[in-house]
Known about the structure:
The complex is a heterodimer of chains A (144) and B (237). By secondary structure, chain A is α+β, with helices and mostly antiparallel strands.
Amino acid sequence: xxxxxxxxxxxxxxxxxxxxxxxxxxxxxxxxxxxxxxxxxxxxxxxxxxxxxxxxxxxxxxxxxxxxxxxxxxxxxxxxxxxxxxxxxxxxxxxxxxxxxxxxxxxxxxxxxxxxxxxxxxxxxxxxxxxxxxxxxxxxxxxx
Amino acid sequence: xxxxxxxxxxxxxxxxxxxxxxxxxxxxxxxxxxxxxxxxxxxxxxxxxxxxxxxxxxxxxxxxxxxxxxxxxxxxxxxxxxxxxxxxxxxxxxxxxxxxxxxxxxxxxxxxxxxxxxxxxxxxxxxxxxxxxxxxxxxxxxxxxxxxxxxxxxxxxxxxxxxxxxxxxxxxxxxxxxxxxxxxxxxxxxxxxxxxxxxxxxxxxxxxxxxxxxxxxxxxxxxxxxxxxxxxxxxxx
Lengths: 144, 237
């Protein structure tokens, strides 16, 4: 009777650990680039566009590449096999969904978080100052 | 030498006794079920009605693999949570619980009911999945992974449902309580089942669905071992 309880509880802990270790990676929210590279599975990474690094769109192959800095400061090249998302330059935050492949992050999906038009947020000022400079690196380097 | 031979003999007699008891509980439930067909009718009618409604609601639009997998699993989970609670409730309502308690040990009752419920879930899964594949015109990329996911999911679904339905049967009017208690517990089965089914529909291999399958194994193992520890208290007290 006693050892049945002990064995049962031990099995519960063992299987429970197996459950949570593997379950966590499926419902896992956001990761940084290092974690995404380690798991190798599809991940969501939050960050900002690294404007000072090269950004380009290859029209022949329909590939958009840019560099993104995640929340821990790691900068990595991101490839997206689609045209540049709308409002990409205005985004104050970018979420890329995809997986690590050959040293760069291949995104299946890009979500851009733009400052609201209806709030007097500081994002709007950023946007205003950027458009005052007259150009954005993404349009400058894309082949016309 | 004689002392040495006696212990395994005793153990094997106890094991045989236990297996016979569990088998007897299973056969009793099966016989009752074959007479009334209550649980099988509930499960299959619910699943078929839900799947037909899904097919009508979706229309001719092709769905993504994830949505298809999610629809299938939601139908399976709700059907199981509605149809499987009956076997313990019937023992209390019919007044046979006391008799069962006198003649068998708690673990035999649990094992017999678990086997019976597993049979029902397998029947449900087979029927619902084939109707689902026909109605929505789904093709399965990796049939082995698809079957494996459903089998593991069915095991986890059965063990959680059997334990919780034993608990709920003690409460008066416990019937509607079962889905409320059960569905939050089944979230890991739902998430991993949908994930692995989606990969099977898309034709990915076993390796791609490793996380999901291990989660299903973990869930089934954890609920089964929880039942081993807890069922004595649920049944006897």
